[in-house]
Design brief:
Length: 490
């Protein structure tokens, strides 16, 4: 049975109650985790507060070295961690290994930034110098989702820890196991290097209890949240009481525009991977496909060929390219969105069914699904489709494609495929999204800031900007020469 991780120790919850963690592919119980209570999460927050002075006063270069060492420890257990991730989340082993490596890459990135962090300085006047200091916020709460529980946790831990904050993690109730183990390894690197116990703590349990206390507890200065837009709205409302800093990475309905001069084969591959990776359960997945009329038929025929070759199955089985959806409810939601599109006149090109066979009976499987000629008013185009179903729309030109791409409450990622630099720049400038890829699959880079516009979130993760979101700035004026003080004019 898993336990809470507080002050470098595994502990039982005060409640003594547990929740099962199930494998979405088989329904088997992988492990159980504690139902944390208000007192449990308060204890973790208090421990994090006690660890803050020593951790925040440690040299950034030493904190960076600790992150690098933590990444090394995690890579040593890559296979074990990836297997655990596949069992609790459902994704194929290949994708789990990629996620563990992505997590380590993020830790390495921020560890490597440590020696480049500098204080800004400016000459203000004769005998006056100004400094801008960046100070850690304090205790930070990280609320992590189930679709990429490890890598998305890394987006928060990397900048938070490097900046000198302490952290309490609230993992998703259905995928807490790999997060717990990874945090234990990071903590080992901290303590082995002489850091205090309690820098990094993990409390499992209901969001209404554990997550809510993180939001309302006045000791917590910052919330980093990734999840659904509706939940993000509640996070923002709760955090407003104490004016907490918030970074919200929320839902997306990312458009992919393919022009008539695009490299069709590359774009087809990007659309297939971008939609069906992690069974379509990614904020940055390709979720709306806009094709110029003249290439639409050829493109769709090639995309169907790709979809037909995707083997669906248990993520632990050799050759599986797409695992199950994470929950029964998630699958039902996607099926209902597809059904709504068909009722409005759309045509299913491929999929739309549950795979048949004894090996699929206990899991939440769905075929990769392609739906053409989707009405703009359909749920598939107006909502986020968080699963392996892709709506396809024909457009006459770039103006129409961008207009329809922007007809969404979301604005997270986007892509445009063209050989024309003018079209590429028009897409980059006019598509309403926090990220636009041109002739590229949707790959996130730690070097670049990531975050949405509109109802896809607030703030930035990755890049130097993430450090800014985990620090307060303080202006300092230093007088080096004596002179008369003039305040408010002569």
């Amino acid at each position: 049975m898993a336990q809470l991780f507080i002050a470098s120790e595994y502990l039982d919850s005060e409640s003594r109650e547990t929740t099962p963690v199930k494998n979405p592919a088989t329904g088997e119980i992988v492990d159980t985790v504690p139902k944390g209570t208000v007192n449990d999460i308060r204890r973790a927050i208090d421990v994090a507060k006690s660890a803050l002075p020593k951790w925040s006063q440690m040299a950034p270069s030493k904190r960076g070295a600790i992150l690098l060492q933590a990444g090394h420890l995690i890579l040593q257990q890559e296979r074990e961690l990836a297997t655990l991730l596949t069992r609790e989340q459902g994704k194929p082993m290949r994708e789990s290994i990629m996620e563990i490596r992505r997590f380590v890459h993020t830790l390495d990135h921020y560890g490597g930034m440590a020696k480049s962090l500098r204080t800004a300085a400016v000459v203000l006047d004769t005998g006056r110098h100004g400094l801008v200091l960046r100070k850690p916020l304090g205790v930070c709460g990280s609320i992590v989702p189930w679709n990429f529980p490890v890598s998305l946790m890394g987006n928060k831990l990397g900048p938070a820890l490097l900046a000198g904050n302490t952290v309490v993690v609230k993992p998703a109730g259905t995928t807490p196991l790999t997060d717990l183990r990874c945090c234990e390894l990071i903590d080992k690197a901290i303590v082995d290097a002489g850091g205090p116990k309690g820098v990094l703590n993990v409390v499992t349990g209901p969001g209404s209890v554990v997550g809510e206390e993180l939001l309302v507890n006045p000791t917590v200065r910052k919330i980093g949240f990734t999840g659904a837009t509706d939940t993000g709205r509640r996070v923002m409302q709760s955090a407003a009481k104490d004016f907490k800093h918030v970074t919200l990475e929320l839902g997306g309905s990312d458009p992919m525009i393919v022009c008539d001069d695009a490299d069709i084969d590359r774009a087809v591959s990007a659309a297939s991977v971008g939609r069906f990776f992690n069974c379509g359960q990614a904020c940055l997945a390709v979720k709306r496909l806009y094709l110029f009329d003249s290439i639409a038929d050829d493109f769709m025929a090639k995309l169907v060929e790709k979809a037909q070759k995707i083997s669906v199955g248990n993520g632990l089985s050799k050759g599986t390219l797409m695992g199950p959806l994470h929950t029964k409810e998630q699958r039902q939601e996607v099926e209902e969105q597809v059904e709504d599109a068909v009722k409005r006149g759309a045509k299913i090109l491929f999929g739309g069914q549950r795979p048949k066979g004894d090996e699929y009976d206990k899991g939440f499987y769905m075929q990769p699904t392609l739906v053409a000629d989707v009405d703009p008013a359909s749920r598939m185009l107006q909502e986020e489709v968080f699963g392996p179903a892709l709506p396809i729309v024909r457009v006459k030109n770039l103006d129409q494609a961008i207009e329809q791409a922007n007809n969404s409450i979301f604005g997270l990622g986007s892509s445009i495929w063209t050989r024309d630099i003018n079209r590429a720049m028009a897409g980059a400038e006019r598509i309403e999204a926090g990220y636009t890829w041109v002739n590229s699959a949707q790959i996130i880079y730690d070097e670049l800031p990531f975050g949405g516009v509109k109802q896809s979130g607030l703030g930035k993760e990755h890049g130097e900007e993430a450090i800014e979101h985990y620090t307060d700035s303080k202006s300092v004026v230093i007088a080096t020469e004596t002179q008369s003080e003039i305040i408010g004019g002569e």
